[in-house]
Design brief:
4 strands, single chain, alpha+beta, 4-stranded antiparallel beta sheet, 183 residues
Length: 183
C-alpha cells in the first residue's frame, strides 16, 4: 500500500520552499540562468545592430559627398547639322500619325486602294498613292478628303492608267496638308 501524506500545518511560503523537490529547484535555476543569458545576448545584438546602422549612415554620407565632388561637368557642343537632325527626328516623332491615319482611313471608301502614305512632318503634308477603278471614284475620294475636318488642303498631283494590269486601274498621287494641332 502507498503511504498517505497527511499535513495539517498551515500553508506558507517557507513550507512550500521546504516541500519543493531538488529536481524542481535545479530546473528553475537552469531556466532562470538561460533567461538571463538570452537577455544579455539580445542586448549585445541590439548594441551591435545600432553600431552597424551608425557605420552605414556614415558610409552613405561619405559616398554622397564623394559623388558630389567627383561628378565631372561635361560641356558638350553639337554642330548645327546635328541640331537640325535632332529637330527633324523630334518633328517626325511628334507627328500626329494616329489622327492623320484615322482621318484618311475614315475618308477612304472600298472602291479606293491606298498604295502608300508618306508623312512630311516639317510641312504638315501627307503624300499618298492610290488606285481607283474609275475617274469618278478618284474625284469622289479627293472631294471626300477635302471634307475632312483634320485636312486643310488636298491636291491631285498626277494620275495615270496602269496599262499592265488587266483591270486597267487609275493610279493617282495626291497631297493632303493637315491642320496644325496644338496639344
Amino acid at each position: 500500500m502507498k503511504p498517505l501524506r497527511i499535513d495539517f500545518s498551515t500553508p506558507s511560503f517557507m513550507r512550500a520552499v521546504w516541500l519543493t523537490s531538488p529536481v524542481t529547484w535545479l530546473f528553475g535555476i537552469v531556466g532562470a540562468g538561460l533567461c538571463i543569458s538570452m537577455a544579455l545576448h539580445a542586448a549585445s545584438l541590439q548594441q551591435k545592430r545600432q553600431t552597424l546602422q551608425d557605420h552605414l549612415r556614415q558610409m552613405q554620407a561619405r559616398l554622397t559627398a564623394h559623388r558630389v565632388q567627383s561628378e565631372p561637368v561635361i560641356k558638350s557642343t553639337i554642330s548645327e547639322n546635328q541640331v537640325n537632325a535632332i529637330n527633324a527626328a523630334v518633328g517626325q516623332l511628334n507627328l500626329p500619325w494616329g489622327d492623320v491615319f484615322n482621318t484618311i482611313e475614315s475618308a477612304t471608301p472600298v472602291t479606293i486602294a491606298l498604295l502608300s502614305l508618306e508623312p512630311d512632318a516639317k510641312r504638315h503634308l501627307l503624300k499618298g498613292w492610290a488606285e481607283a477603278k474609275t475617274t469618278d471614284d478618284m474625284i469622289a475620294y479627293i472631294e471626300s478628303l477635302r471634307g475632312q475636318p483634320f485636312i486643310q488642303v488636298v491636291m491631285l498631283i498626277r494620275h495615270e492608267i496602269n496599262e499592265q494590269d488587266p483591270n486597267k486601274p487609275l493610279r493617282f498621287q495626291f497631297e493632303a496638308q493637315w491642320a496644325r494641332v496644338v496639344r
